[in-house]
Amino acid sequence: MFPKSLFNLNQLTTAAIEEILSRAAYYKKKRKKESFSSLKGKNIVLTFWEPSTRTRVSFEMAIRKLGGNVINYSPEISSEKKGENLKDTVNTLAALGADAVIFRHSSPGFFNLLSQLIDIPFISGGEGCYQHPTQALLDIFTLRDRGVELSQLKVIIVGDILHSRVARSLFYAFPPFSAELTLVAPPVLLPEELVPRGVSRAYHLDEVLPEGDVVYLLRVQRERQGKNLLPSLAEYSALYGINEKRLPLLKKGVLLMHPGPVNVGTEISRGVLDYFEKNCPGSVLFQEQVRNGVFVRMAVLDLFLGGG
Ligand code: NCD
Fold this sequence. Notes:
CATH class of the largest domain: Alpha Beta
Largest sheet: 5 strands, parallel
Shape: globular
Bound molecules: N-carbamoyl-L-aspartate
Distance between the termini: 10 Å
CATH superfamily of the largest domain: Aspartate/ornithine carbamoyltransferase
Order of helices and strands: HEHEHEHEHEHEEHEHEHH
Number of strands: 9
CATH architecture of the largest domain: 3-Layer(aba) Sandwich
């Protein structure tokens, strides 16, 4: 049911996704029991070639909770700097005793190639602007865990869709559960050819915002924009940010999600966050997503690397 490596969500059947979600629910339920042993004796290398807080730390915690050994391997001091190619580097790690690698890399398409060249399994921690499967899994898990019925749920994803690996994984996470997806961004960040079949798109946030049961915000990924595609962040924020002016447009009971890191003042204002904290506690799921990341990654590690 599970492929050797995990780097895109379309590799997984709905049954496999369900299995991950229910295993994550098990780990969440048993969270007070500090240790498990499905990765006992396994050496898992964490190698992140792009900045990360939540993903890297939650993978590390997940490995430790499952009894595995974590080896942090830093690209800054790797042999790649001495001219070694990545396939040889990974095979060297395997020769040293690594059983699997958790990888974050900036080049989209690289993991597909790598999976064909190396012998040990690896799990993506985010691949350029291609996909970020464990993020989408933890997002689905977070909604399910809140008791949200996903079928017919209207989800609006707002932000830099063009450069978002999270969005590209969410494209394969929501439809199997029959949730309705609408993508919203300025045209330059939402090219028509990117929109998958069955998914809607809009360029005017205010027109679709009142329909959203879930509003999923994305950061503007300035580090991935060769040239600045937006005239200014202030203008983006005025047109696509969730600010006080848009509060009356939000559906009653709306849930707000974000993969982090949040740029407060751009995709969402401090005032809106304060308003929700005071008036609708529990509707902003940002920290809940982070917490659930550990359980979902435990489930993925267990099912992919721990023999199930
Ligand atoms: C995202 C990522 O790195 O792809 N964050 C995350 O993993 N939680 C989103 C982002 O960087 O904007």
